[in-house]
Amino acid sequence: MVSKPxxxxxxxxxxxxxxxxxxxxxxQFRKLxxxxxxFIIPFTIFFLCFYFALPILTSYTNILNHSFYGxxxxxxxxxxxxxxxxxxxxxIYYKKAAKFDEISHQIIxxxxx
Amino acid sequence: xxxxxxxMFLVIVALTLVIxxxxxxxxxxxxxxxxxxxxxxxxxxxxxxxxxxxxxxSFLGIAGSIALAGFDGFFYSIGFLVAYLVVLFLVAEPxxxxxxxxxxxxxxxxFKTAKIRGFAAFNTMVISIFYMIAQLVGAGALIKLLLGIDxxxxxxxxxxxxxxxxxxxxMHATSWVQITKAVLLMAGxxxxxxxxxxxxxWSITGMFDQVKEATPLQEKFLHPGVKYKDxxxxxxxxMGLVLGTAGLPHILVRFFTVKNAKIARSxxxxxTWIIGLFYVMTIFLGFxxxxxxxxxDITAADKAGNMAAPLLAQALGGNMLxxxxxxxxxxxxxxxxxxxxxxxxxxxxxxxxxxxLRKGKATxxxxxxxxxxxxxxxxxxxxxxxxxxxxxxxxxxxxxxxxVAASANLPVILYTIFWKRFNTNGAxxxxxxxxxxxxxxxIVSPNVFHPEAGKAMFVGEPWFPLTTPGIVSIPLGxxxxxxxxxLSRKTGKADHQVEFDEILVxxxxxxxxxVM
Lengths: 113, 516
Prior knowledge:
The complex is a heterodimer of chains A (113) and B (516). With 113 residues, chain A is mainly alpha-helical. Chain A has helices at residues 17-25, 27-60, 74-112; strands spanning 67-69, 72-73. By secondary structure, chain B is mostly helical. Chain B contains 19 helices and two strands. In chain B, helix 10 (231-244) packs across helix 18 (470-487). Chains A and B meet through helix 1, helix 2, strand 2 and helix 3 of A and helix 5, helix 9, helix 10, helix 12 and helix 19 of B.
């Protein structure tokens, strides 16, 4: 099958399985995977727990029905915090990902040498 | 007929047709047709994702749910938004790095058999068509209410427009219709929210106090548990919402319209801000409608509450604002259905026709022509199904699409990127089990069988007690992928499966960004 170049901002070259394996085993690539994992795994666990805490608390307890301020209950506060959490994690990831890009550029540059 | 609303509808139609005419000159290659040549900026793609995602169910449905059920309606807003963290952290960038035009492309990088591509394309078409029927049924009901045009005619008008955008304008027109719609929707929602806050004297606490007085639910309006009384049902719904987005084919294809993973990431960040701000404002829409339109008037216009937002606009700003908001709702439906038609057509033409039937040898012209025929075919099928589905609950069709996406697509996507041992067999098991279980459970759920006449399609005792299947079907999809892989590990080597190192390197670095 013929491969067609995608409009990517780099030139196309197909590597052999052995070349991929050698990249996968390189220190730079391992470092990339490691720092990605140490970010993504804990943060994913955190946001899933934070998210599911809301339906679990509202379904099985009444503690969020207490007043936070006037008629505003803790349920609404917790719901709004989900928005803040989403935006915050989004921006944190965006900042962090600059580092991922830096390492992956180095790996690509290395390969092209 | 409401003349102002009618004129606004015409303006929207004219605007979208101008966009399509302008875009039609650019669509000569499959890459332009399916993905706008991959040339959208992060900001443009973020707006288009938002425009593709905030469907009529979001604008009309959530506003109505909050107005009628209070806090429980807001679960949708939260789930729909938090879902973007799953997309951003786990799916968007690897998908952009591996795929080309469709979700099946990405799976096919790892598994070379036609079977897998076929299943992936089939799932894409099933999910897109379910989702489209929901949008078309909503469109028919809305236009009927706003303009007095009957249901069948309304569905056919929307159907013809969506076919025109996609057939002539491809992804360029679809994207720009979505961007235009996102701007209109945000502007309309912001305007109503400001008017609502003004009416409440700019006091959030005052708003909560007043709404509590205004609804028949009183205190209960502000507490969870009005609509979702069963804890498992709530969990099932929220699980489907948060995991479904990352498997929705029409959202996934939006990552192929940008150059690289970095721009895919920035488009998710833009989309998350826009969508988040919109969903925060659904509180004002819902509360405003509860306080200034009132429960009985909302349900009188539409039992499910879908007219809450347009009625609120009328109460606050008279007929002109009503006309504007109705036109925004119409634009919303057009943008979403266009995205769905294009996704389903790409799956048919790129995956079935070119890759499987023609073994990748169809010429560019043949591919684009087939994509155009497929768009027409899919539109016709959806219109016919929507005409039959007139009396179905729209929200249940949308939640079904989310559940299928989370159960059948997400496990395959995640295993493909992250699990070394995953094999062809596991991929097929995950897709088949995810699809059959999620659709099957809905068929035997209270949405279809209900002991009281008139509440569902058939009278009878449901076999499955929950209204959404997610809590059972999503784990089963993942389990099937795991079991299928483990039970066939010895034979796995016989597949034409690329080494995991290649997937790992390519999905993480964007190296060798090609398909096949």
